DNA sequence: CGGTTTATCCTGTTTTTAAGGGATTGCCGC
DNA sequence: GCGGCAATCCCTTAAAAACAGGATAAACCG
């Protein structure tokens, strides 16, 4: 029985590229594509593919959220993340949300086919580059607590410690401590480079 | 005579997508593709296509730089920018570097064909979305002076006013004024949101 | 030429952060 | 039950940045 594959990606050229890569494969049945999260969910109500290739950047919702939602409603559908970015936190979040694999958009036909065949067996697949990124990331991961992330975002919004404290119903000194810890975790000296690094590492 | 088209993009799936979109078009001759700037330049030494579809994000060099270089050496080759981002400054820089058009990767086959046929005549083509972005950007452009950009980058590096002043051989109060002007131009209250907005708008 | 922009510099005051030092509570896993 | 971590809170001092309201010389441009 052929493996039913569905694509969610807002870039027409990528959809065409994948279709062209898969069209001559015998074990693959192309069931269609969606350009956004909403039409993906609508499609799933009618029929479920075996595998969804899912972009991380969608116009209406992040692929990470869509991934979680799909896995909740249809646990038997396997999801392979698809992205141009080989960014540690993205890959990690995608896997945390229930994805079974991750492939970069510069993958070859062979890699894509291998990913599909591995994932359909219930195993996990990483593209070489993605796993390189992950292992590199493990050497020096910046792990923030929920509260720290919250504070970090409010700092980026331009709020002062006092304003953040009011918003979160805590003392300004608490925010000061969180700030202190954020600077330490990122290994920077001040807010400017904190925000810059946090942005580059996709925390904001 | 068929229009010779060449692609520069490091994402295999996108290359495949474009190839598949163009392969049945009679007026188009696919002359090949490159995954990076270096092999693009190597190809051009042997033969010149009529049109290059060029990604903005390449592994070894930015598409903007490659665009400039190609136009210097081979002025008769038309270049169409290709990107997932519809980011004002990217589009602007690409056009400033000699590109004749700009197409987003979610373009349809029709759009792509229209872009090629318009550009080959020596005219300029913008995809609908790209031109929307440009006109929107014109309403509220943030124009920084050379000095302001310089200071902005040093702020993002985490330097204090005094350190920046030393580095640029000016008074700390001068840096303070530049900072004041940067905050005003971005319409923000402090460094944190300055860096955040500057990053989002690709100034850093 | 004359206006505009750019870059430079100044004197203040007030607010906000950074950097040190601690302390307490509650929760989780071993 | 104990160690570790997360989250909370406090103090002090010095540095840095924001805010206000200026001025001047040079370069750029129509």
Q: Hey, which two chains have the biggest interface? A: A-B, 36 and 38 residues
CATH architecture annotation name of the largest domain in chain A: 3-Layer(aba) Sandwich
Strand content of chain A: 5-15%
Fraction of residues in H or I helices of chain A: 40-55%
Tell me, what's the shape of chain A? elongated
| Average pLDDT over all residues of chain A | 87
Number of helices of chain A: 10
Oligomer: homodimer
Largest sheet of chain A: 6 strands, parallel
Strand order of the largest sheet of chain A: 2-1-3-4-5-6
- Uncertain parts of chain A: none
The helix/strand class of chain A is alpha/beta
Walk me through the structure.
The structure is a homodimer of 204-residue chains. A 6-stranded parallel beta sheet of chain A has the order 2-1-3-4-5-6, sandwiched between helices. Chain A has helices at residues 12-22, 37-46, 63-73, 88-96, 109-120, 128-139, 146-156, 161-168, 172-186, 191-200, and strands at 3-8, 28-34, 51-55, 78-83, 101-104, 125-126. In chain A, 39% of the residues are buried. The first copy, chain A, contains 10 helices and 6 strands; from the N terminus they run E-H-E-H-E-H-E-H-E-H-E-H-H-H-H-H. Chain A folds into 2 domains: 3-138, 3-Layer(aba) Sandwich (Rossmann fold), CATH 3.40.50.2300; 146-200, Winged helix-like DNA-binding domain superfamily/Winged helix DNA-binding domain (Arc Repressor Mutant, subunit A), CATH 1.10.10. Chain A is elongated, with a radius of gyration of 20 Å. Helices cover 53% and strands 15% of the residues of chain A. With 204 residues, chain A is an alpha/beta fold. The A-B interface holds A 10-21, 35, 57, 84, 104-108, 155-158, 160, 188-193, 195-196, 199-200, 204 and B 10-21, 35, 57, 84, 104-109, 155-158, 160, 188-196, 199-200, 204. The structure holds a DNA duplex (30 and 30 nucleotides).
């Amino acid at each position: 029985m052929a493996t039913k594959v569905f694509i969610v990606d807002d870039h027409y050229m990528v959809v065409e590229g994948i279709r062209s890569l898969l069209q001559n494969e015998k074990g693959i049945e192309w069931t269609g594509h969606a350009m956004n999260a909403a039409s993906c969910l609508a499609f799933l109500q009618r029929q479920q593919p075996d595998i969804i290739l899912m972009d991380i950047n969608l116009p209406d919702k992040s692929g990470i959220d869509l991934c979680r939602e799909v896995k909740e409603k249809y646990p038997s559908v396997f999801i392979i993340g698809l992205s141009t970015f080989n960014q540690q936190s993205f890959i990690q979040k995608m896997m945390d949300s229930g994805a079974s694999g991750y492939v970069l958009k510069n993958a070859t036909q062979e890699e894509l086919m291998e990913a599909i065949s591995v994932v359909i067996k219930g195993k996990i697949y990483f593209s070489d580059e993605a796993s390189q990124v992950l292992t590199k990331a493990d050497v020096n991961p910046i792990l923030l607590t929920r509260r720290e992330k919250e504070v970090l975002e409010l700092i980026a919004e331009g709020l002062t410690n006092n304003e953040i404290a009011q918003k979160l119903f805590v003392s300004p000194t608490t925010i000061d401590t969180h700030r202190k810890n954020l600077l330490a975790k990122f290994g920077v000296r001040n807010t400017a480079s904190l925000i810059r690094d946090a942005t580059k590492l996709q925390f904001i």
